[in-house]
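In response to a reviewer's request, we include the raw inputs and outputs for one of the modeled complexes. The two entities were modeled together in a single run.
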Amino acid sequence: MRLELRDVRYVYAPGTPFEVEALRGVSLVVEPGEVLGIVGGTGSGKSTLVQHMNLLLTPTGGEVLVDGVDATTLKKSELRRRVGLVFQFPESALFAPTVEEDVAFAPRQLGLDEEEVQERVLESLRALEAGELAARSPFALSGGEKRRAAIAGVLAMKPEVLVLDEPTAGLDPATREDLLALILGLRNAGISVVLVSHDLDEVAEVADRVCALQEGRVRAIGTPAEVFYREPAQAPATVRVASLLRESKPEIGAPVRFAETLDALRALQGA
Amino acid sequence: MEHPGEGTRNGGSFVVSCESVSFSYPGSGRPALSDVSFELRPGEYVGVVGPNGGGKSTLVRLLNGLLKPDSGRVLVSGRDPATEPFEVRKHLGILFQDPENGLVAPFVEDDVAFGLENLGVPRKEMRDRVAGAIRAVGLEGFERREPDTLSGGEKQRVALAGLLAVEPDILVLDEPTSMLDAAGRREVLAYLETLRAEKTVLHVTHHLEELVRSDRILVLNGGELVADKTPERFLSDADLLRENRLVLPVVQRLALEIGLSPARLRTPETLAEAILAKTESGTRAG
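The model returned the following structure tokens for the whole complex.
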């Protein structure tokens, strides 16, 4: 699926003294099978933006297009199946007595037969290496396990676009790395992933393109190198190190991912 | 352990002590904490790390009486949170990781004042404390905003302001920057730095870079306290890191991979300088 936002605007509490303009004309495209990282400071509009991707919020201006078709003309349930949204701290929405039933809830609503539901549940839990959690109560899980169970629930809908809002907040570093590997796995299976994160280091590792938001507008959009080297002070640690060295060692280039940066540093030392 | 109990709790100092504390959640086969002992001396800044499910959040909840130990004893400023939770909460404030759960009032300033309202603080003093706390977390101008219209990071700063307004001696921070952007994180950490010595801080985090300046780092894994070390020794102990599913921050990992000492190079700037120094001397030697 190609998901496009055209000049999207959103105002919270319009016409009241508490009116806040959260999005001021955002245009971007989520291309099929890419990981689009969305970064930006606290309050830049990241979470508001992603809630427009499945019309959980209706834009007060502009439009959302699914493969060129105005998303408001699609059935909401269909749109939300195709664009799966995982909120910040999604574990707070876990409710069923077992993880298995929790993950099965949404696919069951689609009217699938029980065999298909079970298959999807197992498949999603396995994708998150959470198969052993199936029979456990979601409330007895650790933070990282709950997070995985909650993401499995959205994955079981087989979305074409998976939108993850701060999926690694509060996860230990090893669990975070597992989740990033999962994102790349989904991308390689043809699913588009929108990754909202304030952790630039992790965006650097997985994003094909990056969109930087600032005060409700797109400040920059492009490859990670294009976006991050434009403003190295607001860049991942790898880019900050490399851009500090670039003045006297231009041969270092513009590495972004950890492995690239390490190669560039080694080449520098070997020279 | 490197820090045996020193009995300061009876001397009227504000400290935390855990003596052989064990706790299991009902229905769970394995203890969430088993036989955990440590002490915080007044003014110490101590980090807590470890994998998800290691017992960090359980420990935090035992410190203010939200949970009661199955065995062993917790003392905060000489009081047992299991029997005197309200007294303990005047001395020990907790910032939880998901700010959504904590915000209750219609406006930011009311939310920051919420904890104070139960303490019988005079009106004028309350206003000053609330304004001071809002300023401290950089949220001036947000006083009359509704919490619902704030971003996750802003909400977290509101929660931190509410905690600071109560002026506890001991701050327990459970992932206080997990929802902040890089700038917000630096701001909050710089603020926490100004509280050093004045407050005792227990800082739970997955971001090791936040703890490079702490006094000690405790490692909880599988409910057990498996290490209590200085940051220098901790960051250079590769086995300990791996066994506890910890990953060095990017700067330290780059340093280690190219043969520089990770413990001393804390920022991209210091790493870049060290690399330049090394390549320059390498050029001269060659």
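As requested, we also summarize the result in words. Chain B is about 35% helix and 20% strand. The two ends of chain B are 48 Å apart (CA to CA).
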